[in-house]
Amino acid sequence: MNKNSILKEFLTGNWTSGKLNAPTMAYMTWYGKQPSPPISGREASHEAEMFEGAHVDKNIPRRAIIIINKCKKIELRSTCEGESERLPSYGIIRPKDGQKKTAEKITNDINALGDWVKASWNMGNGGLPRICFTGGLWYKKDKKEFTEWWIKIAKALVKIVG
User: Fold this and answer.
1) For the chain, how big is the Rg over CA atoms in Å?
2) Segment holding 8, helix H or strand E
3) What is the pLDDT of residues 102-138, one digit of tens each?
4) What is the distance between the alpha carbons of residues 58 and 48, in angstroms, rounded to a whole number?
């Protein structure tokens, strides 16, 4: 990857080129490149609800959300169950302390878990860092694997941030 690329800026949290919608962030996180054509923030729509303070798609395991919400140092902002290779499932979290260095550490710790999950961070709305994590999967592809992945990442987040 070219160290001077926009993608590098994005992957290191230094994205300064304006807003980046969450589906695009998830795509770039998993594939390490910009989507072509660009992904609209409204390209996919899933049945969702507010659950424990976060926008959660219907098929995201509620057990995973409950586990993630036990983490005192992060807040879950949104999720997506995904739809295809182009639109993988993802979660968006924020460090409660609002610090870039915390977002960078959490991102690095998630990425150290292995090839089953990737994370990146950037400055989201309101000037606060946000972290995207994804596994490149989606609900309709393999419901069992999807559910297991969400529980696995939730438990990993507890270990990472307490």
Assistant:
1) 14
2) helix 6-11
3) 999 999 999 999 999 999 999 887 889 999 999 999 9
4) 5
Residue 53 inside a domain? The answer is yes
**pLDDT tens, residue by residue, 57-71:** 999 999 999 999 999
User: What was the pLDDT predicted at 4?
Assistant: 37
Enclosing domain of residue 95: 48-161
Instruction: Give the DSSP H or E segment for 26.
Output: helix 22-31
Dihedral through CA 73, CA 62, CA 152, CA 19, nearest 10?
A: -60
Please state the length of the chain.
162
In a domain, 42, yes or no: no
Q: Which residues contact residue 108 at a Cβ distance below 8 angstroms, ignoring those fewer than 6 apart?
A: none
CATH of the domain at 80: 3.90.1150
Angle (nearest 5°) at CA 57 between 54 and 59: 130
DSSP letters spanning 98-121:
--HHHHHHHHHHHHTT-TT-EEEE
Question: Which pTM was predicted?
Answer: 0.88
62 and 84 Cβ atoms separated by less than 8 Å: no
CA 25, CA 131: separation in Å to the nearest integer?
Answer: 9
